[in-house]
Amino acid sequence: MDALVFGAGALLICMSAAVRLCYVRKRRKLVTHHVARRARAVAFSTGFVFACLAIPEVADVVDPFITINEVSHLLSCGTAVIFWTSLQVMIVDWTYSREHVRTGVTVRISAACGVLLAMVWEFHLIDTAHVEVTTEYAHNDGVAAFLLTYLGFTAVAGLEICVCSIVLAAAARRQQRVAATGLSIAAAGGLCGIAYAISRGGYVVVSRHWDAWPLALEQAVSPTLAALAPICVASGLTWATIGYRSARANPRSPATSGR
Known about the structure:
Elements: H1 2-26, H2 34-53, H3 56-66, H4 71-95, H5 98-125, H6 141-172, H7 177-207, H8 215-246
Helix pairs in contact: 1-2, 1-8, 2-4, 4-5, 4-6, 5-6, 6-7, 7-8
């Protein structure tokens, strides 16, 4: 099931990236918000890597190849952090005034670097020869710390993406309905990220103190939510791009200008 869901996510991200690349190449001289454009390219790239590494068969190949136990989990979570950070940078470039963009971008990249360094250190402390970096070993202090660090960042970033996308969709609803629909789908992706963090993080916390819900249920729900997040974001942004192209006669629209 995981292979099917994440495989579909990787394919859809590739298709979304192709649509976006075609659009940028045709209108590269007119495209504004260059920071957002580059951030989206990074988001699509890391989202694709995240989806691939989350496929169990791919992870089984990566770990022996790099000769580090569970390294696929570290790489998968790390690329997910970069994915969410890139989306945050994109939103900042869209919504902040020009004089505040650099500060907003710096804050988010600095926060992401701190989270990545913490995750690497926490992974280093885990005895990966005897435990896996999954909720099945949530009783292990190192595994719990690693997962909660990653999931905490995911929840915060997903919340920002969700709220800002909703605001942009509301602003575009009257004049750019197609773009507004795409932004609403992207907001749903942020909501899936929040739900994923709550689902998996909640299991980690509860299982360490009380009797949690069945592990099989968590292992079925959480991966689906994790895959839906980049799927919704990629498809939503692509739909918004199509909406912008269809309304290019009005490039000053408040929600789609230069996107």
